[in-house]
Amino acid sequence: MTATVETAARAGVEVRLENLQRRYGAVTALNDFSLTLAPGELVALLGPSGCGKTTALRLLAGLEEADGGRVVIGGQDVTGLPANKRDVGMVFQSYSLFPHMVAWENVAFGLQMRKVGPAERKRRALEVLDLVGLAPVAYRYAVQMSGGQQQRVALARALAIQPKVLLLDEPLSALDAKVRSRLRDEIRRVQLEVGITTLFVTHDQEEALAIADRVGVMNAGHIEQLGPPTEVYTRPASPFVAEFVGLTNRLPGTVSRGEVDVRGARLPLVHSDAAEGNAVALVRPEAVAMTSEGDIGDGPLVGTVIAVAFLGATSRVTVDLGDITVLAQLPTSEAAANPAGTRVKLVLRKDPVLIARDETGTADA
Amino acid sequence: MTAAGYPAVTGVGRPVGGGRRFSLDWIGAVPFLGYMAIFLFLPTVIIVAGAFANDSGFTLENFANLSQPFIVNAIIASVILSAVTAVGGAVLGALFTYAIATGNPRGTFRRAVTSACGVLAQFGGVILAFAFIAFMGPASAIYLYFSTHGLDYYAGGVWLYDLRGLELVYLYFQIPLMVLIFLPAVDGIKPQWREATESLGGGTWHYWRYVAGPLLAPAFLGSTLLLFANSLSAYATAAALINQGGPILPLQISNAITSEVGLHDPGFAKAQAVVLIVIVAIVSVLYAVLQRRTARWLQ
Amino acid sequence: MAAVSRSRRAKLQVFRVVTFVVLGIFFLGPIWSMFEFSTRGVGENAARTLDSWKAIGTYPDLVAGIIASLELAAITSIGILVVLVPTMVWVRLRLPKLRRAIESISLLPLTIPAIVLVVGFSPMYRWMGINLSDSILTLSFAYAILVLPYAYRSLDAGLAAIDVKTLSEAARSLGAGWFTVMWRVIVPNISSALLNAGLLSVALVLGEYTIANNLLYPNLQVEIVTVARSNAGVSIAVAVASLLFAFVLLVALSFVGGRRRQSPKATERLVQTYARDFSGGTR
Q1: Which candidate, A106, A308, B175, C12, has a CA 20 to 30 Å from the CA of B118?
Q2: Which chains pack against C, by 3+ Cβ pairs within 8 A?
């Protein structure tokens, strides 16, 4: 559900994080971190715990002070401003709502801080609740709502004040899987409708890929790759990105003459100037096809199916090649033709692959 | 070991379909229930029945006798003392709680302080009284220092040995008790609420006025009530500090059952006891109501 | 708590330091003063001395009070365990419907102040003194009621941690009689809860004044008050001694409870639960 909405329909502002530094004692959470969000854009910061994505968000919100760098919202330098003067809307991972107020009172709270009169703020609160589809629960307390509903109310509360930026700190992590996918689409729908610049932090790559205009994959305090979801997925810039986003097979091979030889198959390289010699090729399961017809022989890419995981339209097949196992993602009909125990031959599609040098997956060149 | 006296009924072979089977299992509870009946329920019955009776049968005379000035004054003084130490203990205890709660939740300092509160909250009675006499009484090092340096704080009388002294001494266990019962509520305040308030444009004052204040109010009130009941029931500290007279209700009750006069008029003490227990019961019920509200919001 | 801006954090730290210092003086001062008082020498600028402490032995009533309280502590704590453990196990095994009732009854003494209870005890003890015995040790009957809630809570937690039903059924199927089940199967598995309940009972009994004084029995605390009239130093020395003893018990308690490696928060909650309800008991 990536964006194809006209830029003209978006009313958001540009947000710039410039050279941000943040240290906690001896630990550097962010080092020279920079990120620009275009008006109305939804950028997802994706990465494992501790990578600094939440820190970046909190610095933008003003909930923490940076040790260095600037935060600019809509052309205004807000670096020195405390959180309550920055005009940002924030949705937290959990315990967002004030438990002693009903839904509309929660939503109206920000308006109350802005000295909007009681009748007016109730009217606007109910309006925003309607925007997120929760008008029926306006008079309920947090404990009387499901997790998904609570987060929608939290979203309404953040939007009610018509902030310049919308910040979401892993808003779906505490919810059930089914609720998660529905709610993330809802968040995206609302964000597009309102056209607000949004920063979405998550550790779930499926979430990030599904709703973002651009995805920033973070690792250890810096962004490894920033780009549209398709690009991050199909053309990962580093082994870290390749392995964090989507599944990856790590197949030993040899680099020579601008290609990598993986068990007899020669595959093109993403970086054609990679150093020669032993390497680990990162191959997506979708790039692995297989056949069991005819005489498949006994080559290095021949093995036995040991597991088939049914995922709906596709299935993931685990093939044992003797010394390593390989994952292949196939249409379910094909996978059904090759149940566990079948001897199959793998065919690697000639997509450019990334190379990792050693077992820890550090990139070369 | 009384276990040897339990019947050897093994409980196997229950009839299918839930038929009625005469069971002797209840005998196992008899020792405990019997003991409770004698030493818990019987005294209670004695008090309640005795309060409403005299030699000639049912009467409200004992309660009428409570209207004598010295009893009325004692009850009023008890209520005032309890209210003062409850509010004082609650306010100071709340500040103390806030100071503790804002520290490292897993640190050793916090654990040491909460354990200390656990000890101090039950540290009452005689030893506490003597500790304060040693701390600031007429023979204490502190008094000797201050009186020889111009500040004779007992110039108007040794107030440590009357109600004003009690108010101060009671705080010694009221404050830790407040910490123990209020700390869970303060811990229940999630940091996200503060951050949400800030991101919505509210400052410190707004946070306390609209969020943390209303959320903690039931817990604070409930704790104050508990402190009130605690103070009202206290006897030993007062008995050790106040040598004569009976300015508060528990001391009056004590006089009533240990003096010669008391033996002549047993219903008198019992009526006083009933008054005390009724007040404590009402306070406990109110506390339970407030506690439910707190649990709902801050659990 | 949430990350705060630097100035707010500084203000908070100042508040905390001031609070802890002021309250620290208020709470530690009297305890220190007791130590100071009990080690005073005679005359101005006299050296510290343990004379008050040594003089404890010269007051026979005081010594009798100490012994009596220790005996009462032993009798009460053992007695309550002997009655409670089989009852609670039996209720768990055979009378589950009674569980709520037993729990409510056991926690009832928490809501009844000791000064009220003793009004009911007074005629009973007068009768007992005439018809059965007027030994001070009969106080243990009353003390059992006082310690009941704490012992119950401790044992309840201990029994909840083991599967009483399965253990006893296994033992019975192997031929054990009820006595063996209790003594050799259940008790060893709740040893820390037993010790916990026992220590709390001892601490409570040693500090008890209200009931003893109003029933006119000279236990430790009553004797301390009596001696104070003639020799403040000695009485405070005994007070300090009993305080130290209670402190040692509570430290032992924290180690006993720690065998199950509770998280700090859980231990904290346990201490809170017990201490919160110590109100109204010995005061």
Answers
A1: C12
A2: A, B
